[in-house]
Amino acid sequence: MILKLYTNLINKKNEIENKNIILGEINSNNNINNNENNENSNNIDNNNKCKLGYDKENINNDNINNNNNTIISNKIIKENKKGDRNKFLGIIIVILITIFQTGFSELSSFVVTGDYNSPFMIGWFNTIFLLFSFLIEFILIKFELNKEKKELLNINNEPPQKQDTILKRFKSKFKNQIIFDNETGAETISPNGITLKKLIIISIPITILYIILNWLWVLSLSMTETSIATALYQSATVFCFFLSIIILKEKIRILKSLSILIFMGGLVGIVVATTTTTTDGDDKFPNAILGDILMIVSAFLWGLYEVLTSKFIGDANRTIVNTYMGLIGLFNLIIGIPIIIILNFIKFELFKIPDSYTFIMILVNAIVGFSVLYLIVWGLSVTSPLFVRSGELMTIPSTLIFDILFKKMKLPLLAIPGYILIVIGFVLSVFIESRQIKKKEKLKNQKGENGNEKNQKKENQQFNQFSEINL
Asked: Which residue stretches belong to region Disordered (predicted)?
């Protein structure tokens, strides 16, 4: 009995030990499985992290590429629009120059050949009206500020807390132009950047040049036939062509040279036809030769004025152009007063007040003259001096039409080929200028694309370095 109980206890003990061994094996297997699962999960997490990092890098690179491509495309669109706008604007300006210059020449001839023969006073009074350029610019800035205020109000539904004043916005237009070097990343101040101080310094000698050429132009109108004077004055196109090569370093091109030759052929034809058909010119204008010489000198100075204006304020913004003209008017007012006193003292040109009718004609002539010069300077800021000169050259056929319709002038048959050549030269110059503007805009777009590609590569390299450090 006791032996049987002892045997049962031993069997139960063995069963318990076996159960413990089995449970231990199960637990150990579970631990091994858990460890394997943890390792697998860790590996999966690490793989996911690497994958996420890689995807993040690709996503960021794609975003950078998309942003850069968007910026490039926007710049190209803006440059193309600007090029088309400048081309269209240049043609409109040249047409307006032709119309207003015709009226200005006829009015000036009428005034100076009348009782009020004071060339310097007429030219000085005409130039004073350039002071209105300041007023025009301030009005335009006021419109800009009001437009910005309305746009901010529409976006935020609240009035802006602080906005630029007219004077502050005016000064901001004269900040130095900053050039960014795509290779080194350095920022430098462009020597072509125009500050207000620099513009004032430039305007003083330009004003003196303008006073002299304007005086000679009005003076020669009283000494020679208007048709001859107008034709001779357009020889500024040739001076402008050669001065552009010397000062602006423009290349000599076949088509441009051809247009100049056509212009000159028409000019010579008109002068020859006019002189051969004039019989009483010596009695009416005894100093005609001196008048012709003065007109040619004035034409040379005018060509120099246009080229220097294009050099100093070419591609300038509207504010700089208006300020440039306003400064010429201001310095003309200051410099002209002592000159009038000196001319009156030496009795070269006596100071006298015109009658009411003559004063009205001088006033209208000054307004038209201001419009002409404003259009010329505006045209020089968006196109080339030669293209602007082509518009002025068109005053020869336009004054002819005016004289035939209103002055009942008989057209010399020998002059017809000359007028036709001038029109052909004008059309050719329009074609040349249009093609040149397209080339310039295309060159700018290519430079912009190359610069943006370099910046994109640098940004990608910097991002890759940053990603490697984080990973």
From this structure: 443-471
Strand-pair partners of 187: 180
pTM of the model: 0.66
Under 8 Å between Cβ of 76 and 445? yes
Q: Give Cα 131 distance to the centre of its chain.
A: 22
Please give the share of the chain, as a percent, with pLDDT higher than 70: 63
In order, the DSSP letters of 278-313 are -SSHHHH-TTHHHHHHHHHHHHHHHHHHHHHHHHHH
Tokens of 57: 């890098």
User: Which range among 103-117, 199-213, 428-442 has the greatest average pLDDT?
Assistant: 199-213
Cα dist from 106 to 170, 221, 417, whole Å: 37, 10, 23
The residue count of the chain comes to: 471
pLDDT tens digit string along 74-112?
A: 555 555 555 567 667 878 888 888 888 888 877 887 787
Question: Which residues, in sequence order, are bridge partners of residue 180?
Answer: 187
In angstroms, the CA 439 to CA 445 distance is: 10
Using 50, 70 and 90 to split pLDDT, how confident is the model at 200? very high
Per-domain residue ranges for the chain?
83-455
DSSP character at residue 189: E
E strand residue ranges, 410-452: none
Q: For the residues 350-367, what does the mean pLDDT come to?
A: 88
Structure tokens at 422: 């001038």
Residue 332: how many other CB atoms lie within 10 Å: 26
Report the sign of the C-alpha dihedral through residues 239, 241, 242, 244, in that order: positive
Q: How many helices (H) and strands (E) does the chain have?
A: 15, 2
